[in-house]
Amino acid sequence: MKSTLRTQRLLLERYVPEDEDGFVALFQDTRVSRWMGDGPSSEADDRALFGRIFTKVYAQELFDVWAVRRDGRLVGHAEIKRTDAVDGFEIIYALAPEAWGSGLGRELAEGIVAYGFDTLGLTEVHATVAAANKASLAVLDRIGFEYVRDITEDDGSTTHVLTRPLLASGTTSPV
């Protein structure tokens, strides 16, 4: 696990215990959490999730999980991990609403994808996105993700599976 990543405006680094309240605030914001995992959870569940980042994910070096900071402030969350849903590595990212609309979503997603290719040596990276999450789908489309298939969730909603292949030239940029 690499401890830090940098993009033009963002720093992705391991969480520290002092990030707990910011993490919980991010995941308690239903504008964000409605698109994460199974949707909004209780504050207690989000605090337990934060604790598991240290006791399980970091302790066992299971996968990369980062606090996303801009100008020293926690503005998001990011991961790249192996998942059976796509039989490969999936990127997961979330930004606080105050960070929306400034291109940070694209910058964050591109940074995680580049890490997958350049550091983890992957030949493709996946994302699973709720069909209703038009903003995230647009971001991923702009950086070269392609639609693969749909998953019908237990609640009847649809999740799109998207894949971004490493380009033939070995570069990570679709442009």
Instruction: Name the overall outline.
Output: globular
Figure out the total of helices. Answer: 5
How do the strands line up in the largest sheet? 1-2-3-4-5
The major pleated sheet works out as: 5 strands, antiparallel
Order of helices and strands: EEHHHEEEHEHEE
Low-confidence stretches: none
Percent of residues in helices? 25-40%
The Cα radius of gyration reads: 15 Å
Class inferred from helices and paired strands:
alpha+beta
Integer average pLDDT: 91
Quantity of strands, as a count: 8
The CA-CA distance between the termini, in Å, is: 28 Å
Instruction: Give the amount of beta strand, in percent.
Output: 25-35%
Describe this structure in words.
The radius of gyration is 15 Å and the shape is globular. The mean pLDDT is 91. The protein has 175 residues and is an alpha+beta fold. β3 and β4 (73-83) form a beta hairpin. The strands form 2 sheets. It has a 5-stranded antiparallel β-sheet with strand order 1-2-3-4-5, sandwiched between helices. A 3-stranded antiparallel β-sheet has the order 6-8-7. 30% of the residues lie in helices and 31% in strands.
Give a quick rundown of the structure.
With 175 residues, the chain is an alpha+beta fold. It has helices spanning 20-28, 30-33, 43-58, 104-118, 134-142; strands at residues 4-6, 11-13, 64-70, 73-83, 88-95, 124-130, 146-152, 158-165.
SSE arrangement:
Layout: E1 4-6, E2 11-13, H1 20-28, H2 30-33, H3 43-58, E3 64-70, E4 73-83, E5 88-95, H4 104-118, E6 124-130, H5 134-142, E7 146-152, E8 158-165
Antiparallel strand pairs: 1-2, 2-3, 3-4, 4-5, 6-8, 7-8
Helix pairs in contact: 1-3
